[in-house]
Amino acid sequence: MGILLDLKTTGALEALLKANKESTTEVLTEPTVAEMKDLFKVMLGVCMRNINGLAVHPDVSLESIMIDLELMGFFEVSASSSTHHKRRHDLVYHTLDVVYHIMGLEKLCADNHIDMAEMMMGALFHDLCKTDDYIWADEGSIHAGKKVNKARFVSNPNKQLGHGTKSLLFMAKWFKEVPVSIRSSILFHMGPWVDEAPGDKANAYSNAVSKYFGVLIIHTADMASARGV
Ligand SMILES: [Fe+2]
User: Fold this and answer.
1) 19-44 confidence digits (pLDDT tens)
2) Total-model pTM
3) How many C-beta neighbours within 10 Å does residue 41 have?
4) Rounded to the nearest whole angstrom, what is the distance from the C-alpha of residue 84 to the centroid of ligand 1?
5) How far apart are CA 18 and CA 112, in angstroms?
């Protein structure tokens, strides 16, 4: 079953379009956390059914991954502390938004023989690292030697290094095999600002794009979401 047909069959595509459309209005009709969790789960299920070469470890299932994500705070934390999607639950919101933007690049993906399910998988996990990047700071608490004037998510002083690499590291708990195209899209989703490339970052990014065009797709969708397009 093709991914778009699978998405339509499950109702996820319609839900995603609805959630995104509503979130851009002035009316308070943003998707609830429960709706976003359901949508994420449906999409991950679509990926797990459609991607060749994706394999989970023994005893890992869609259900167990969802439980782990919950425990990691994936549905709770923000997607940043100071730039975009700073609110509680914004990591999953941003994640779904990136998938939405990828769906809008469907023709570009098709013209370049990019597997949409692989792109969706990359989007779903590209910022998994952020479950370790941010912690909640109450108003009046001390963070980085300063008093926090307004409760918000702040950078975790004890976070592990890395961004794309950290997302891949966390994913390894569940997946024993992930296609290299997906791993590349996650590793280089920051584009020319990729943390993991010492030296000429722009060159490292462009080399990655020339090998796996999906890197450009993920980076473009991520930027579009981060900038509120
Ligand atoms: Fe992102």
Assistant:
1) 665 555 444 457 889 999 999 999 99
2) 0.88
3) 16
4) 9
5) 28
Distance 202 CA to ligand 1 centre (A): 18
**Tens-digit pLDDT profile for residues 98-152:** 999 998 888 899 999 999 999 999 999 999 999 999 888 889 988 888 898 888 8
Please give the distance, rounded to the nearest whole angstrom, from the Cα atom of residue 130 to the centre of ligand 1: 9
In terms of residues, how long is the chain?
229
Distance CA 91, CA 226 (A): 11
**What's the rounded Cα separation, in Å, for the pair 224 and 118?**
19
Calculate how far, in angstroms, residue 68's C-alpha sits from the geometric centre of ligand 1. 20
Query: How far is the centre of ligand 1, averaged over its atoms, from the C-alpha of 64 (Å)?
Result: 23
Ligand 1 center to 222 CA (angstroms): 5
Integer angstrom CA distances of residue 224 from 99, 104, 105, 118, 128: 11, 11, 11, 19, 18
